[in-house]
Amino acid sequence: MSIRVLIADDQAMVRAGFGALLDAQPDIDVVGDAADGERAVAAVAEHDPDVVLMDVRMPVLDGLEATRRILADGPERPRVLMLTTFDLDDYVYEALRAGASGFLLKDAPAADLVHGVRVVAAGDALLAPSVTRRLIADFAARRPAGRAAPQAVRALTPREVEVLRHVAAGLSNQEIAAELVVAEQTVKTHVSRILTKTGLRDRAQAVVLAYESGLVTAGGR
């Protein structure tokens, strides 16, 4: 089945360009677009997309608040992939806390956009690229690390905590497997258990938890 995508951006040329690119893929179907956050919320209810490409800054209702409203009903709602530029602000960090599955720079190569849609549609988070690691670390650096791990983290085994630290560093399952000298399927199992025990939506929220609980610090693992 095709991945149903909704594009929310206040620039008509961006919506048209991204739409043409994604519609050209055999496994992706652009089902609608929106010029502001309020319209995006309404369009999600109307079109029921699998993935929403959400611009951070839009009129009427910004991408952050739109993301909160779209994801308010829980994990069965669509995945949100934030679109932003290099002049980032706290919106992106807060969007991850609200449940967004990651973010892409608007000037990323076309192949990255297509790949990003497929990644989040599959239930993963778009957090592996090195630029994303640096940006998340930058947001975390603006906030002091938690003095004590929350109850959710204390429920994890030592190995699961170790895996969570690697996830927060932006490593893929394959990279974590190489670091720990275990099978990739073992890492997938650990990640699944981490999400279940902490009640988190995906790897994006796991990264936020790792930073906020003090398991990792900005710029390090």
From TrEMBL:
Keyword list (alphabetical) reads: DNA-binding, Phosphoprotein, Transcription, Transcription regulation
| Domain (Response regulatory) ranges | 4-121
Source species, domain of life: Bacteria
Keyword Ion transport tagged:
no
Q: Which Pfam families match?
A: GerE, Response_reg
Residue stretches making up the HTH luxR-type domain: 149-214
Q: What protein name is recorded for this chain?
A: Response regulator transcription factor
Q: Tell me the lineage of the source organism.
A: Bacteria, Bacillati, Actinomycetota, Actinomycetes, Catenulisporales
